Amino acid sequence: MSRLGSIGARLYRGEVGYDFVGKRKLWYGVSILITITAILGLVVQGLNMGIEFKGGLVVTTPKTSVSAEQAREVAEDVSGHLPIVQELGTGGLRIQISDVGTGEADRITGELAQELKVPAGDLNADIVGPSWGEQIANKAWTGLGIFMVLVVVYLAIAFEWRMALAALVALIHDITITVGIYALVGFEVTPGTVIGLLTILGYSLYDTVVVFDSLKESSRGITKQTRWTYSEVANRSINGTLVRSINTTVVALLPVAGLLFIGGGVLGAGMLNDISLSLFVGLAAGAYSSIFIATPLVADLKEREPQMKALRKRVLAKRAQAAAKGESGVESAVDEEGHGPEDESEDAAPAGAVVGPRRQPARGRGKRR
């Protein structure tokens, strides 16, 4: 078995682990700091909305020896507006000029062909109206709202409302960070960006549902025992699915990174940049939120229930009693070193919960005569 597989097996059995839930205030603080930074980026920097949303003229040239900087200067002189020029993988250029009307577009196209020494018939000019971009934005917001409602309803039915609320908070966290990164980096927001944002919602939800499913099974009948609090069971569920979450996230990030750094950076495909950046940031944020936000938040909400408060009191009382008697059979579910308890009590663990190794009585090598 590989080293990673061995660690995953030990995490699943509860032999090792990290106290994610116990240190949840730290991760809440980190998440709040990242979210505030993203919001400040949106407020100060703003989004670089693409021409599809603002309207204007898009001119694509065939393969040319003119550099992007030269084309940018020519387009600015001809149009009087600050253009956006991108190099295409074919060797051509894509020139975007915002706030250009239909009557002005023909003149600008002709002058560009003359200044760039390209036949006017070889230039591909498209005029985009701002109303079309407004329709796209409205449909994107509508799709996002419908998705959020369906997610909350499904999770409330399949699990419970606390898990639905935690998943919704994690989704909002992921979208905010992704949009904030777009603002800070200055990437252009295009329909491809909208597609990427809607796509990451499913990926972000996947890891969260996996942990929630494990937690649901592990916490079944939890009030009938006195070994574990709900927070400790939630923490074991995170550790038990940790390697799986890391593996699925890394496997998903590798091809997206290829799109972002090779397809967008090397080949210069603008649409690949738009989709891949949102996917890359969203996948990473989704894996983070499912581990450090969603499940700890569920534990916080569940611990407020009277039944869980009573359970915590019973668990702590039994541990204090065992400590007073000098017994070590009942310990914290995950101590500072990350080791699970060595159970010697007669209380049954929750159904589906994974317990640590048990101490076996020493056996003699032979019988005394």
Automatic annotation (TrEMBL):
The keyword Cell membrane applies. Residues 360-369 have a biased composition (Basic residues). It is found in: Cell membrane. Pfam families: Sec_GG, SecD_SecF_C. InterPro entries: SecD/SecF_arch_bac (IPR022813), SecD/SecF_bac (IPR022645), SecD/SecF_CS (IPR022646), SecD_SecF_C (IPR048634), SecD_SecF_C_bact (IPR055344), SecF_bac (IPR005665). The chain crosses the membrane at residues 26-47, 140-157, 164-187, 193-215, 246-269, 275-299. Residues 322-369 are annotated as: Disordered. It is a multi-pass membrane protein. Residues 120-303 form the Protein export membrane protein SecD/SecF C-terminal domain. Keywords: Cell membrane, Membrane, Protein transport, Translocation, Transmembrane, Transmembrane helix, Transport. It comes from the Bacteria. Forms a complex with SecD. Part of the essential Sec protein translocation apparatus which comprises SecA, SecYEG and auxiliary proteins SecDF. Other proteins may also be involved. Part of the Sec protein translocase complex. Interacts with the SecYEG preprotein conducting channel. SecDF uses the proton motive force (PMF) to complete protein translocation after the ATP-dependent function of SecA. Belongs to the SecD/SecF family. SecF subfamily. This is Protein-export membrane protein SecF. It comes from Streptomyces lichenis.
